[in-house]
């Protein structure tokens, strides 16, 4: 981020210290452009008016821009640099941003690590790859920030790093100067979080051969169906490729036979239509059939003020629906 950058505040400053950009902008003598509400029209207007060079946001923010009417996007003939974090972003979203001509950087972290603590550092040779392959690489959680002493994927029981084979799942762990000391007045939670001398993120991931970590799911979001682990993120990735889908979230729905099955909550684009069967078949054609959702619920998804989808609300809805079914 060079000096005199023009930064648009699509990200709330209260969210993980605004991902540290309040003082970044002061340090590089940049211009702050403020926004009261995340809506496509004012965002594109401000980008044109102030020649914005940088902004940040959760995946839903970028998805809003991708799905905006084409006339709103006209007149931006310079490179806008965007940062995405929060939930693991769908590859389709990263592809959509690149098609708009925006350069996207993917970062990852938690409040406990002062917000972003790892970055999917781009390699020059990735530029030669087809867009879909480039998006897959850019969708990884990446490598540690310079200020973070360590980031790795370990088996939380043995505290040993998993092999870098892209398949063996473990938990992402951090330690270093930008990791918190602990939870205020809660020594038990602090002890659990730092068992083995590393901060346990709660995110299940694999380590890939090139040393980049890739999240598969939150430990509480993994769906265990008939003894098989199903990544909710993997199913969501497929759902986001459906042309009618604006936003999607997958949670476990209790099932008498399988224990749990995937339940998809889908928010459609304005004016778009899709049936439950159409969505299910779309998924079954693109992934192992047992991973496809068994149920699809349409409607606006509950979100936090920072744009994160509230999965805990959807889990309760799925449980209620299961109780009614039985």
Short recap of the structure:
With 326 residues, the chain is an alpha/beta fold. 26% of the residues lie in helices and 28% in strands.
> Whole-number radius of gyration?
20 Å
- In N-to-C order, the SSE pattern is EHEHEHHEHEEHEEEEHEEEEHEEHEH
Helical residue percent band: 25-40%
Distance between the termini: 55 Å
Task: Report the top-level CATH class of the largest domain.
Answer: Alpha Beta
Structural class: alpha/beta
Describe this structure in words.
It is a single chain. This protein has 326 residues and is of the alpha/beta class. The protein has three domains: 6-144, Rossmann fold (3-Layer(aba) Sandwich), CATH 3.40.50.980; 150-218, Luciferase, domain 3 (Roll), CATH 2.30.38; 223-325, GMP Synthetase, Chain A, domain 3. It contains ten helices and 17 strands. The strands form four sheets. The protein has a seven-stranded mixed sheet. A five-stranded antiparallel sheet has the order 9-8-10-11-12. A hairpin with a 2-residue loop joins strand 13 (223-225) and strand 14 (228-230). Helix 5 crosses helix 6. The longest helix has 15 residues, at 311-325. The model has no long low-confidence stretch (mean pLDDT 91).
């Amino acid at each position: 981020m060079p000096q005199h950058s023009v930064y648009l505040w699509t990200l709330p400053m209260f969210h993980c210290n605004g991902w540290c950009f309040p003082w970044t902008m002061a340090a590089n003598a940049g211009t702050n452009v403020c926004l009261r509400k995340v809506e496509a029209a004012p965002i594109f207007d401000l980008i044109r008016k102030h020649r914005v060079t940088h902004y940040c946001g959760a995946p839903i923010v970028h998805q809003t821009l991708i799905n905006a009417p084409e006339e709103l996007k006209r007149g931006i003939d310079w490179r806008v640099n965007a940062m995405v974090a929060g939930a693991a972003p769908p590859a389709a979203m990263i592809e959509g941003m690149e098609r708009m001509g925006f350069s996207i950087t993917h970062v990852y972290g938690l409040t406990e690590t002062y917000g972003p603590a790892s970055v999917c550092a781009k390699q020059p040779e990735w530029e030669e790859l087809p867009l879909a392959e480039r998006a897959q690489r850019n969708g990884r959680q990446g490598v540690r920030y310079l200020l973070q002493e360590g980031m790795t994927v370990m088996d939380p029981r043995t505290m040993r790093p998993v092999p870098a084979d892209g398949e063996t799942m473990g938990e992402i762990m951090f330690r270093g100067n930008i990791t918190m000391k602990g939870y205020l007045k809660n020594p038990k939670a602090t002890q659990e979080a730092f068992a083995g001398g590393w901060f346990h993120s709660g995110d299940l991931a694999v380590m890939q051969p090139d040393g980049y970590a890739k999240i598969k799911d939150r430990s509480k979001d993994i769906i265990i169906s008939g003894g098989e682990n199903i990544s909710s993120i993997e199913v969501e990735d497929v759902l986001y490729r459906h042309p009618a889908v604006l936003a999607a979230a997958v949670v476990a729905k209790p099932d008498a036979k399988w224990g749990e099955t995937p339940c998809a909550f889908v928010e459609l684009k304005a004016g778009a239509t899709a049936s439950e069967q159409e969505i299910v078949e779309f998924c079954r054609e693109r992934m192992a059939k047992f991973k496809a959702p068994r149920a699809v619920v349409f409607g606006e998804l509950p979100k936090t003020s920072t744009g994160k989808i509230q999965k805990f609300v959807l889990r309760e809805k799925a449980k209620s629906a299961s109780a009614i079914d039985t």
